[in-house]
Amino acid sequence: MKINLPRKFKLHTNDMITLRKEDIERYSTIFYLHVPNKDEVYKAFINKGFNLLHKNGYYHLTKNIDSLLMDVKIYDDGFIEASIGIKNQMVNVIYQAYDYYRDVYDGLHIFYKTEWDNRKGWVIDIKEYFRIELPKADEIPWKPRIIEIPSGFLGRFKLK
Fold it and tell me: Which residue segment(s) compose the domain that 140 sits in?
């Protein structure tokens, strides 16, 4: 499985952020999605085979995809945290989660927020990406392979 995450991008505050490979390896959530109607998005995930683990202030959903676990949390404020991987080795995903709900809400709103950086905000322009290749779950040791790619290779997604 291949995942793309922003590497070099601009926030609505005009801050330009450049992530390092180590940032992606160390932290599970760097990017959040946002939707105005969380209940419609929740239904879209359920209709596409996700299982509800619980609803306790947020919807917590999971689905097995190609022997990996996709984990999605939809919070009451409309923010979505999504990752994929095995056990405690997860990688943040944006576009894979967006693909599951884009038929009920086609706005792609990405929010950047981390533990180590006090800058946070809406991503308004992406200059470069990381391409992350996830091995199959039975490969030992399991470790994502991360490569940098220019933003022109991902023309099918448009920030709104």
Answer: 2-154
